[in-house]
Amino acid sequence: MTVDQHRRGFRVLVTGGASGIGSGIADVLAERGWRVAVNDIDADAAASAAARLGGTAVPGDIGVDPASIVDAAAASLGGLDAVVNNAGIHRRAPLDRVRPDQLDDVYAVNLRAVVLASQAALAHFEQAGGGAVVNLSSIAVVTPQMDVGLYTATKAGVSAFTAQAAVEWGARNVRVNAVAPGMTRTAMAEAVYADPVLHEQRRSMVPAGRIGTPRDIGAVVAFLLSDDASYINGQTIVVDGGFTQTLIGLLPHPRPAHDEGSRSPG
Asked: Is 264 contained in some domain?
């Protein structure tokens, strides 16, 4: 029996699932037989995505009442087997000038909602005999971005929460993992990648030779939700084509004192 056959009909909520990386995740899961509830703050976009996938729409601001969105998804699907906490926002500002309201906005969506949605899912997982959570972290955790306010800190919190939840909930047959995307071509980033010079500069820095797509992230999420990943718990999986491994190579280095292969005297 293949994983896809085994998971056919299983029920998953994808937050922020109507666009960007969330859309790629929802697409891949639906193609592999999952029944998908699409949450998005844009009600029309959620409805359109759900119709395309043959799923159900659960519109709403995940930063306001995550538990209600989880419960609504479970009600619409007849239960819940997994949650993908994908929704996330930026409030760009240097750390010395980020405002309290910007801190509150980013914390509410990027970290608080992840914790509360995961908590709310536990009761539904218990009815299903277990469940899985995949959270969206970021390579910003290890390669911090400039001028993005609390974004990097919240994503670090997502990875830390993932590890702690895995330890505390593993005995309840609930696995919790995270995915940390690298450079990914989405509508939000299209202004960068539509510029052929910038696109090539970025592409050339990725060992895989290309910029990632939302479906690349979706494929890893699908794996982490599958029984093939049944012994993976508490991990943050970096999906960046090898980009973060190249950063040391960007540092200036002295030229070698002699040609490679030559022998030193003596």
From this structure: no
Reading the block at residue 57, the tokens are: 């729409």
193 is catalytic: no
- Give pTM, 2 decimals: 0.90
Determine which one of 107, 151, 193, 231 is catalytic: 151
Residue 217 structural domain: 3-250
Return d(Cα 217, Cα 175) in angstroms, integer. 18
Give the whole-angstrom CA distance, residue 210 versus residue 1: 33
> What's the order of all strands across the beta sheet hosting 131-136?
56-59, 35-40, 11-14, 82-85, 131-136, 174-181, 236-239
What one-letter code names the amino acid at 21?
Answer: I
Supply the pLDDT for residue 259: 54
